[in-house]
Design brief:
The structure holds two protein chains of two kinds. By secondary structure, chain A is an alpha/beta fold. In chain A, 31% of the residues lie in helices and 17% in strands. Chain A contains 24 helices and 27 strands. In chain A, strand 6, helix 6 and strand 7 form a beta-alpha-beta unit. In chain A, strands 5-4-15-14-13-6-7 form a seven-stranded mixed β-sheet, covered by helices on one side. Chain A has a six-stranded mixed β-sheet with strand order 21-23-22-27-20-24. A four-stranded parallel β-sheet of chain A has the order 10-9-8-12. The relative contact order of chain A is 0.15. The longest helix of chain B has 10 residues. Chain B has a single domain, classed as Alpha-Beta Plaits (2-Layer Sandwich), CATH 3.30.70. Chain B contains six helices and ten strands; from the N terminus they run E-H-E-E-H-E-E-H-E-E-H-H-E-H-E-E. Chain B is α+β, with helices and mostly antiparallel strands. In chain B, strand 6 and strand 7 form a beta hairpin. In chain B, strands 8-1-10-9 form a four-stranded mixed β-sheet, with helices on one face. A two-stranded antiparallel ribbon of chain B has the order 2-3. The chains are: A alpha/beta, B alpha+beta.
Amino acid sequence: MSFSRRSFLKYAALSAGGTLLAETPFMGAKARAQAEGGKARYVPTTCEMCFWKCGVVAKVVDGKVVKLEGNPLHPQSLGKLCGRGQAGIGLLYDKDRLKVPMIRTGARGENRYKQASWDEALNYVAEKLTTIKGKYGAESIALFAHGSPGTYFANVVRALGSANISYPSFSQCLGARNVAWELTFGEAPQSTCERVDMANSRVIVLFGTHLGENMHNSQNQEFAQAVANGARIVVVDPRFSTAAGKASTWMPIKPGTDLALLLTWINLVITNGWYDKDYVNNYTNGFDKLAAEVKHYTPEWAARETELPEHDIVEVARALGRNAPNVMVHPGRHFSWHGNDTQRGRAMAILNALLGTWGRPGGIWLSPKGKLAKLTEHPAYPEPKRDSVVFGDYPFAGGEGLTNVVRETTISGDPYPIKAWIVTGTNLLKTMPNQEKTRKAIDKLDLLVSIDVMPTDTVMMADVILPECSYLERHDGLFGIETREAGVAIRQPVIEPLYQSKPAWWIGSQLCRALKLDDYAVKGTWEERMRREAKLWNIDYQELADKGYLSIPGSAAPYFTADNPPTFKTKSKKIELYSAELEDESFAPIPKYQAIEQPPAGQYRLLYGRSQVHTFSRTVNNQWLWELFKENQVWLNAKEAARLGLKDLALVRLVNQDGINSEPVRVKVTERIRPDCVYMVHGFGQHSPAMTRAYNRGADDQHLISKYKIDPICGTTGMRVNFVKIVKEA
Amino acid sequence: MPKYVMVIDQSRCVGCMACVVACKRENDVPPEQFRTRVLEMVKGEFPFLRSELRPELCNHCDHAPCVNVCPTGASHKEADGTVQIDRSRCVGCKACIAACPYNARYINEEHGFADKCTFCQQRLKVGLKPACVATCIGGSRIFGDISDPKSEVRRLIEDNSHRVLLESAGTEPNVYYINRYPKKLS
């Protein structure tokens, strides 16, 4: 390919400040294609390699997608993509993709299917759903979802008359965190991203938040900026994470004792007067009760309980106080650890409140102003005849629902049977703790439908498999994006769907029609609906389609100012240091420390986390990511390894407290972890042979997580409560 | 004529591998082969640890051993300071691979020629920075023309204490690493 001097000049002109070389020049799809003489086509769209919703610009040559780049106009990507985002092409052209609709012919899990036409498959599903609805009621149909396809199938399930819809993102991930901050500030600390003002922060405390391994694009860009700015990084983590490598203080805390450290910091901040007095006086309630309640959490006690140096405990509290309010205790993301998680989140929120970080530079910024109107084009959904089960008996369960309660109900049939599961975008066997229960529940079903791109373990249990096309082949959205400013983003096809795969919106709509619920099907195409939505929002659709993202001017108001005075959406309209709402439901209104069970001698607490190049189990078969990280290893402290006579890369099995054996897995002997726990990257040990690269690679942490502890406040499943011993593989 | 160099600020590297994947896509590098890598090294004993994340690539040396040993003249130094390979002249003898002290080269197994990082020459020609730099999440890789006194790379090299890899090999690399405690003593 030859390039002209003219195009060079164009790029140079496009780059900021007239520097010689540009990074990712993008003024819109048409302008860029023109600058290059039209050989390549560019399509801006939205990534779904994870759920951060980065803006992508796809380059297409001769009908093939050849490169993905970050959209510089989009605040979640800022011109860059992580390794996973770049590897989206690996998903698009993965030879193992689901290609045609399939109906099961053998026993569940036997991998025997017949190919079906779309009509045949959809009619089969519709008939089964109609029968189940007639026999057991509409509420016996449940949806599990993650990501954008959930929208279209929630519509189907609601139209049928069921509200049994749940997203593992609540119960198995960040639910307890959001509930804790809602109870304290009236609002979750997250919009499209965590609202952390790291670029302006002087002290950043991370509790097990694996920035660098948890590769949320713009958040990591800002973390690197904070490090470059000289912000003090404190990492509280039993494992020396990538982020710990950036920290001035690594606090290798004894797992499960985080609340002891937090309550002690609250005590230190109060008794030493390091809190923001005006802020606390003006905007919080319950300060005196809090001060009295935390008085007995002394640094000496915390040092014993957490196994951290007392000096570090006091010194970090002082650094927080001295630099407040331009500091943060990062709210974290994956939060379902030990089953007492809401109270841990409360303590983090309370500490932030005392330091005055909410609405302050370097702390937690405020969500942008102005909400986008909701476009509704279908009749109201029928009111379910029986209450949904998705909130269980947990008074603070969130709107995303509790997957674990739906599963329990499916097994027990109490208060009513659940007989059909529609599963999309989530690999439940790898997502939910206790696989035995997931299998038991699936055994009770009359129908399991999977809509997905890849033949995951859960997909290969389904009765009907509907092949969804990848995010690079479909319309989704429009997406309201809330970073410091509000904006709108688009997902649009870069190429037409490959094989017989179809966009989820089409599958959902066709299913509505097959169920004779035509009023709930989309009118025309989804793109036409997106155009109507753009019109409702006063957005120029053509411009959006050309640029991928448009910001809403004047929407940013990240800090409290004279023009933007503090308001809190709690019941008392103040920050609730003392939670009357929790008290009303007989929970501790101020968090109290209770020691959790520790592993017996010879066993280790099982910790799990992320690789920077994988998203749960979603990406393990991707050629470009697989070659960088083919299988997980189990991290073991070097002294423990020596004691057990295990050399680096020795092959072992882990056996948990219930006698469950892991797949064979290699040991990573390391100084980077405490001696009382082991760690592995989540998402490996795929049993579906249809995932040819990932098949039988590494060990499945979720298989070992047979035990889980439910948070009594909001019903989320604490999953860091399993103990394993290590057995040498012969 | 510009002289291209890369400056790597390791403190900003988050080890995300975006550069590695971007390079593979941009340059169509065969499966399981790489033109760049990010090494993670940890020193010390629990709990007193220090880690280093070090992106590595071809150093585009001024005294390039790969160029000196190449029997056909395929490996050569260009006027912009980069070391390039003329694929049509490469016979795949692997002398350059043995000579390179940085382990930066490989034989492209699909086509048989030696290959390595080109600083994304095809992008430089149209005024774009290398793919790894454009997507570097941490802003750890900085690229530019060291002969331009106003360039960011020039400023970074002048303002910070820095090093090159295997300085004693006398290769005079053009990839600079900013030291962990970068401020120069006045």
